[in-house]
């Protein structure tokens, strides 16, 4: 299915976990996430994949809903997988303070801190991210 | 004042217009916009200026408030001034469809279309953007 | 008090639990929920009670605030009590994907899944819902 | 394309106008609206088409963004095309007062009043709505 | 009807205009605004009337929806009627910058500037506000 | 640093806890909270400190995001420190029901109940609040 490769190459395991979590609840939702979000949208070529993920982080942090917390974590993982530095992710959150106010950013920074720590732990464990070269829409 | 140079080099005329519009209403607000938004936040170095503007566009489009419409236009201008292509700006909006839904993006695309047309007109008139090289925090 | 019967006949136990939860916090709030929400609004006759609950589910899922999660559960219970099928509830959530984006719906679907499972368990236990015939504004 | 028939049979002219309005701005958006919103979502069978439109009205009114105003009008038109009475539409808006507060409903009621008036004018002019029987996913 | 006196003594003409604007659209809404908002809520005694209006301004500015703009104007009028100074109203808006960000406050300040100008014009014309002593729940 | 005294004299311990919680995550955020929120905004003189806190409570409750919950608690603490009665805080929340709907207020009331209980416990323990007289911008 279109979108499968993009999912694997960006959000990786944490994106697939979200799709899987709807297997028994509403499998149609998992299929739409892959086909529409990853297949129709995220694999469009006009935007650098890392910049795309930083844009997603900006939007999800600005929404600040409880529902945006899990996808915010998924797209922080994806940004790290695609080569964003922790500094770029933190700065992406600081950047929206003027538009969104401090409480939303405070919450998002705590989520970012957790995801970056997990990512760092995995690197040390010898499972380096090798997702930098993307061929995203072949799925 | 810290922030003046960053304002001039990114949002340019349309950012200064916003600051000026509060001259008779609440001049303290204009000062805070320059000192805090541009001086404390936007001139921090960890993020590429064009990527910073695309993040701002993502956040403002995701909020979708009527109040976000004017700053969305300002930061689309800034992204164009900093070398973003119209395709990158449009794609930045498509990118948040999965998080924010279609109505917000429809509205934002119409604003982007207007700002891009105005930018193109200015280029043809012989006033090329020369803001690509930034030394943003000297103000 | 006007609204008591509507509360009992729609949201049933889970609506009464919400009202009771404010007994020691701010009893005036519980009274306003019954008198205004159930007495002034929900017992108005122009809308089929099941359709009214599906509309409530649509609105609460679209808001996506953390505060909307408990009432979303209450009105999913009410829709089930009033004869909505699980498929109608799930489809009511899919229906707002284009307006509200995927994260809000993902969260709401997990809540719906829990409430539907609890409802199914009660049916099997021999306490069938008999709330289908409503005489809602006699309270 | 999948979704074309559903668009025509529900939102009719005012839905097509929205799609057309992106022809010169971002034609890809119009295609996604038809293929995803109408083709993937709105033509799913589990929900009565009129109830689906009343759910859309509930969600869009609850969002209350400026961007939701145009689609709110489109789906009020669709509800009327599918046989909803003006009373049902007005009641659908009253129904969300407890969740969304008065300002959002005040705004939405004024939009509903305009769309219902336009619909009534068309009926008198001899172009009756004959969209009640739907075969929505044949497109 | 309970609430009529509170409406007259706080929001005055601009509140009554809102209620009247629904006379032909949905008269039930106007009645609920008077009976519930003014009769059940705004005439409760535990809060100083001016502080109540400044709280309303804070909440409406923080929402930032297009629908909140008219009530924001109404409650700025009410605050002025109840003796709030223009400086207190402007400061009430500055106060929420940290929570709500700059765009919402920019928008709200422009609305406040208009309402304060109109209020000042009326004072000069010899129709002084004499609403300071309130007996708000006798209606 | 400007803002330190205001932080200590209003939000007291729970405000300082928030600043400290970013020490290892993003220390720059803690500095901006003190310098901008407390130094630039909260120590401006035009608004009575207690009224300022009640306005903050109004705005944060009206936002209803999960991220607003912690600052809502902090500013309820601050209002109590500055002499607001529990009745005034509860009434400040009731006051926004017409604008924000019941779910947001239900959530906020539970938070207020917890903070008021904690504050009462401290008073009984012999550590009375003596923060009533403020000299807020000397820091």
Automatic annotation (TrEMBL), chains A, B, C, D, E, F:
UniProt name for this protein: Carboxymuconolactone decarboxylase-like domain-containing protein
MF terms in GO: peroxiredoxin activity
Keyword Ubl conjugation: no
Keywords: Plasmid
A Pfam match: CMD
Top-level division of the source organism's lineage: Bacteria
Keyword hit for Chaperone: no
Residues covered by the Carboxymuconolactone decarboxylase-like domain: 27-113
Organism: Sinorhizobium meliloti (strain SM11)
């Amino acid at each position: 299915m279109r979108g499968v490769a993009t999912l694997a190459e960006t959000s990786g395991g944490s994106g697939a976990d979200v799709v899987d979590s709807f297997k028994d609840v509403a499998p149609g939702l998992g299929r739409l996430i892959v086909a529409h979000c990853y297949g129709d949208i995220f694999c469009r070529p006009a935007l650098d994949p890392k910049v795309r993920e930083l844009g997603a982080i900006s939007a999800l942090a600005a929404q600040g809903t409880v529902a945006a917390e899990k996808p915010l974590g998924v797209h922080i993982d994806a940004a790290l997988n695609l080569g964003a530095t922790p500094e770029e992710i933190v700065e992406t959150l600081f950047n929206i303070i003027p538009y969104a106010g401090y409480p939303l950013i405070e919450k998002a920074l705590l989520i970012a801190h957790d995801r970056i720590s997990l990512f760092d732990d995995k690197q040390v464990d010898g499972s380096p991210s090798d997702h930098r070269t993307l061929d995203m829409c072949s799925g």
